Structure formats: C-alpha cells, structure tokens
Amino acid sequence: MRILFVCMGNICRSPVVEAVSRARFARAGLDIEVDSAGTGGWHAGDAADPRSRASALARGYDLSAHRARQVTARDFVLFDKLLVMDRMNLRDLTSLAPGEGHDRIAMFLPWAGLADPRDLPDPYYGDAQDFDHVVTLAERGVDGLIERLGRPIKAQ
Predict the structure, then answer these.
(1) Catalytic residue among 35, 86, 122, 132
(2) pTM flag (> 0.90)
(3) Which of 30, 107, 137, 150 is 20 to 30 A from 80 in CA distance terms?
C-alpha cells in the first residue's frame, strides 16, 4: 500500500504526518510506503518549516531530509490513498484529480477514525503550541490508520 499525505505547501502538516507514519508503521510491522506533497508549489524544494522540525524532533521524528514538493498527476497513479489535512486541501486536490483519482482522496483524520477535529489545523501563522498540537494529532491519526489497517499498535 502507498499513502500520500497532502497539505497546502508541504512544509508543516503533511511532512509531520509522513514522518510519524513512517516511524509508527515500521514499529507496527506494516509495509506501507508513505510520502507527502502540497497542493501548491510555492515551497517546492524547501525544507520543512523550522517550527515543524523542532516540534517533531522533540517527539522523536526527524524531518531534516524533507524537501517540499507539489502534487503531480503521477501521484494519482502511484498512491492508493491521498489523505488531505483539511477541507480546503480536499477541494483543491479533488479539482486536480483525474476522474478515476477521486475515489483515492479522503480527509486524513476522519479516514483514520477520528471524528473530531475533522481538519488538522494549519499551524503556519501560530505559535510553538500549534506546531506541537499538529504532532499530537498526527500521532493520533496515524494510530487510527494502523488500527484501520488491522494491526495493533506496539508499545514503545
């Protein structure tokens, strides 16, 4: 299985979810390929936001190798699921998707089994606490994905 996590610029939320999923899927013994991208390309080639890197690293997730990229048409072929961070990304990605790609797109947190919040909030204009909250929601969401995919979460 291949999952692409999508946010707006691919420097805050989706790289964090990618890093959390990579670590937690491996720990759960799941062979799932993950990546992340943005609906917009203005940050293409940039590292993850320093505040995202700091919040993630404080919880054991290294974003130092991340470089932002924009969603491409090929992503709708390569990935089984494209999980977006919020309703705006859902609208934007759906407008980019070929007809057969629409069924691969879903909201990350609801598809992972979390009813509230529906959107993983964008911390870009927030403070350190907002970035920490993204990591917490990423962990909860990825744990939900692991449960959805039928594997119990192993203790740390």
Answers:
(1) 122
(2) yes
(3) 137
